[in-house]
Amino acid sequence: MPPNELVQSWLLKATHDLETAKIVASHLPDFNDVISFHCQQAIEKALKGYLVSLDIEFKPVHDLGYLLNLTSTKDGSFDVYFEEVDRISRYAVQIRYPDSIIILTKSQILEAIAMADLIFGLVTQKLG
């Protein structure tokens, strides 16, 4: 797949995850695990699309910190979001399995949605 098509494919998948998080938050606000998982996925896929556009190879992992570190090798503008993105990464991993239950507040869920929206917006802005 040509790089530009691959970038667009990553962004489409990121859009689907971001919109899923927003819809679930709106209609099923107690489904914190699903909401935070899709926020993590939206950020991951947006960053992967951006990495493709920067011609940076990456391992097939779900670690947002790793992806952000790779991005910073050519664009350090995302570095200020490392702490927030890393926290969202932990939410998604910890709540994926039934033996790792964490309780997220409504505020934490809203922050996760806002951060996913922000990262996706920054990526799409940079890509034009």
Describe the structure.
With 128 residues, this protein is an all-alpha fold. It has helices at 3-27, 32-53, 64-71, 82-94, 106-127. Helix 2 packs parallel to helix 3 and helix 2 (32-53) packs parallel to helix 5. It has a single domain (3-127), classed as Up-down Bundle (Four Helix Bundle (Hemerythrin (Met), subunit A)), CATH 1.20.120. The mean pLDDT is 92.
Label the overall shape: globular
Radius of gyration: 14 Å
Specify the CATH architecture: Up-down Bundle
Overall structural domain count:
1
Span of the ends, CA to CA:
20 Å
Compute the number of helices: 5
Would you summarize the structure shown here?
The protein has 128 residues and is mostly helical. The protein has 5 helices and no strands. The model has no long low-confidence stretch (mean pLDDT 92).
